[in-house]
Amino acid sequence: MPDLFIKRLNRGQGKELILYSQKDNDYKVFEGLPPVSGNQTHLRFHPTRFEWVGYSTTRQNRTFLPDAHDCPLCPMSDNKEPSDIPVDQYEVAIFTNRFSSFQLSENKAPSLEIETNQATGTCDVISYSANHNDEFSKLSTERVELIIQALSNRTRELYGNSKIEYILPFENKGKEIGVTLDHPHGQIYSFGHIPEIIKKQAIVQQSNPLKKYLGNIPKELILKKNSSAISFVPRWARYPFEIWVVPSRRVSNIFELSDTEQHDLAELMLEASKKLDGVFNSSMPYTLAWQLSPKGFEDSHHFHVCFQPIRRSKTKLKYLAGVEQITGFFLVDLPPERSARILRGEEKPDE
């Protein structure tokens, strides 16, 4: 595993920038973008779905698809074009989202006729590269390893906070998926509560169905295996070309992976992203979830990574239909077995 160097910069008002690199860089530091003030966040309880809904007053005005020269994730060369990453160069950076939906500090919830609560947690942004035109599939294996090291380091820190119950690193890729910044990046949300669907998944995993399935994945669904992980199209895929990457050894969180397991995970994730872009020879829009264990389920949860693409043909996207949005019951256009053949290059996709 490559060396890991970490530099932390205090941005004021509880905001922090953490720089991760494989060499000991000497950074030139600028002032950067100022914190956003006046954000009011809270939770309201949905009485029929039995889950919390979050509200954040600053999200409405967050940065939306700026030109490259105004990108808040690009490094700075002077003080004329401020950035959220105010250094002259970097490899991987994690910083506090200025438009955070959660706060660790006390944030009073309004008193209403329904149950309300503080929106406890954190929202970080992780930038994969200083290069504005990069994307995950264009990165080197070493850079993906560094991303995994950065996520391991940051999620371990967050997991040690007694206010945090669940952590979700994720990526939204592509304008079709609704990204607001073109720069290659992901996010890390840490929750002061466990979302209901995550709690349900964690309870189901207490009988360890994923571990049982891993030893018996049909060959027609496997994309690649290496010494400690496997990538495959799940038989239960809800999205076209959905890919799971799973360590062979059950670990509950990314920071429990060994150096070899981190390398193997990076290798399979990078290849999966390339396969997705190769389906239509264009950048595949997707959501990417790093499924970590909620607190209290560490003894049974099996950490895994899930790519959920939304392009089902060269000209069609997978939109969630009304029945899917209302009930959560998915209707799938493309059988997983065919998705796997297309991803392996054995069959052509639909036009």
Describe the structure.
- The chain has 351 residues and is an alpha+beta fold.
- The chain is built from six helices and 14 strands.
- Helix 1 crosses helix 4 (259-279).
- The radius of gyration is 20 Å and the shape is globular.
Q: Mean of residue pLDDT?
A: 95
Count of distinct strands: 14
SSE order = EEEEEEEHEEHHEEEHEEHH
Strand order of the main beta sheet, please?
Answer: 1-2-5-7-9-8-13-14-12-11-10
| Helical residue percent band | 10-25%
| Termini separation | 41 Å
Beta-strand residue fraction: 15-25%
Specify the overall morphology: globular
Weakly predicted, low-confidence segments: none
Give me the secondary-structure category: alpha+beta
The total of helices stands at 6
Q: Over all CA atoms, what is the radius of gyration?
A: 20 Å
**Biggest sheet record:** 11 strands, antiparallel
Assembly classification? single chain
